[in-house]
Amino acid sequence: MKKLAKETAIYGVSSILGKFMNWLLVPLYSYVLTSPADYGIVANLYAWTALLLVVLTYGMETGFFRFANKYAEIDRKVYGNTLISVGTSSLIFAVLTVVFSQEIANALGYPEHPEFIAMLGTVVAMDAIGSIPFAWLRYKSRPIKFASLKLLMIFTNIIFNIFFLVVCPWIMEKNPGLIDWFYDPDYGVGYVFIANVIQTVVVTLALVPDMLKGEFKFEASLLKKILAYSLPLLVLGVAGIMNQTLDKILFPYLIEDPVFAKSELGIYSACFKISMVMMMFTQAFRYAYEPFIFAKHKDTGSKEAYADAMKYFIIFSFLIFLGMVFYLDILKYMIRSDYREGLRVIPIVLFSYIFQGIFFNLSLWYKLMDKTMYGAWFSVIGVVITLLINVLFVPVFSYMASAWAAFACYLIMMLISYFAGQKHMPIPYDLKTIGIYTGLTIILYGISLFVVTPWEPLNIVLKTILLLIFVFVLIKRDFPLQNINFIKRFLK
Predict the structure, then answer these.
(1) What is the distance between the terminal CA atoms of the chain, rounded to a whole angstrom?
(2) Are 251 and 272 in contact (CB under 8 A)?
């Protein structure tokens, strides 16, 4: 558990700090881009790229972990064959995207900007290739290098976003002759995509030394085994990412007025992004947990370790939830005032992220038992729920329907996976403790809704007291500080 916590913390540095810096792009976009509709374009196209990235990796990251651990003596060959497969398919995709960029742009409703499609197609192909050397670093327990490269990627993106969206307009106003040979002030949102291309190229070049560590001796029988294991995970991955992005992909088609649709999507996406603090935590946990479950599988007491990991994941998820909802009066200033009507989705979205994280925790049983089709079916059920609620209710309730669709989707997937998992691979989860913290979280959140005074600073103080109550229960019951050596010295 200490190793898992340590690696979660290191991965969390890149995931949380990196995504936090990326998170700060939300106020940049909301204050700099002309209207919420411009942010809606970014949200829509990035939803497509997230979906395509899952398709282009087709479960090979998890497949690599499974077979590199299973055949540890030939792990470099497993790595090389995985990279050959993903690299070939990604290069073909990139070429096709560039060649047919105009046709794709026409179909998506951006006929005047086919270069957006070409740029994002190239980016997603390079990201797919890069996912395998990143998996290699996780397999080799090199979280510091992993974190450093992820931070390089994030900081490069942020630097160029600031350069194009803030610095260049300022220079254009003061001394246009310096940059008018490459900068077009009317290109606006297009510079968001250019920054993404630069970021991806930089990190792909940095990953080349790790790519070369594979044994590139093609072995059809080995690749066939990896693909047989991984392809069901493609269904799982596609369904999973569709549960996250389907609303943003469908939204422009579900509201008649296209300008209003993009504006509503921009508001929803900006507020959704604020909730990503929870996703940062689950992502950091996932990076450490997936290699952990495969390595721990044969150990005595592994099921107890999985149960402990679930308990602490849920406890700290609730702590983050309360921290977010109690301080919305501060967080609202992250976005421009015309976006703030969408803040009501944040508690709903946070709970959907918690359910998603628990579902990921529960997914270990079918991965360890090589029954990945179960995960695929669970995610397909989630997609159907997401699709139905969005199609039926978005035309009436706009983005609130999308938020509740995500909530219902992950709640049902979580419950189905739990009951199926307990039948095939029973794990002694501490349901009593989980129930206590769930009840405590709901009670404290309910009380906070009535903490409304004319003085905003007083509201924040009162909600801080509520948060401290949760922390006190956590320390007293399940996280005694005297058990941490560093703190124990001071307590003495």
Answers:
(1) 25
(2) no
144-173 as b/e: b if 16+ CB within 10 A: eebbebbbbbbbbbbebbbbbbeebeebbe
> 340: burial class by Cβ within 10 Å (0-12, 13-18, 19+)?
middle
- Kindly tell me the burial class for residue 297, based on how many C-beta atoms sit within 10 Å of its own C-beta (0-12, 13-18, 19 or more): middle
DSSP summary character for residue 33: S
Domain range list for the chain: 2-450
Average pLDDT over residues 4-14: 63
The encoded tokens of residue 444 equal 């404290």
For residue 464, the 8-state DSSP code is: H
DSSP string across 331-371: HGGGS-GGGGGGGGGHHHHHHHHHHHHHHHHHTHHHHHTT-
| H runs (alpha helix) in 363-430 | 364-368, 372-397, 399-424
Query: If you search the block for the tokens 């250019």, which residue do you land on?
Result: 194
| The two structure tokens encoding residue 336 | 């421009």
Spatial CA neighbour of 466 closest among 323, 265, 329, 311:
323
Count of CB atoms within 10 A of residue 356's CB?
Answer: 23
Decide: 296 and 308 in contact? Cβ < 8 Å.
no
- Number of helices (H) and strands (E) in the chain: give both, helices first: 23, 0
Q: How far is residue 58's CA from residue 448's CA, in Å, rounded to a whole number?
A: 43
Tokens of 321: 């939830």
Residues 373-397 pLDDT 10s: 787 788 888 889 999 999 999 998 8
Distance CA 166, CA 440 (A): 44
* pLDDT tier at 469, thresholds 50, 70, 90: very high
Q: How far apart are CA 368 and CA 372, in angstroms?
A: 9
Q: Give residue 451's pLDDT band: very low, low, confident or very high (50, 70, 90).
A: confident
State what percent of residues in the chain have pLDDT above 70: 87
Q: Apex CA 358: angle with CA 137 and CA 440, to 5°?
A: 130
- Report which residue type is found at 20: F
- Of the pLDDT bands very low, low, confident and very high (cuts 50, 70, 90), residue 77 is confident
CA Rg value for the chain: 23
Q: Which residues lie closer than 8 Å to 454 by C-beta, 6 or more apart?
A: none
Greatest Cα pair distance, the chain, in angstroms, is: 70
- Closest by Cα among 189, 277, 300, 247 to 410: 247
Q: What is the pTM of this model?
A: 0.68
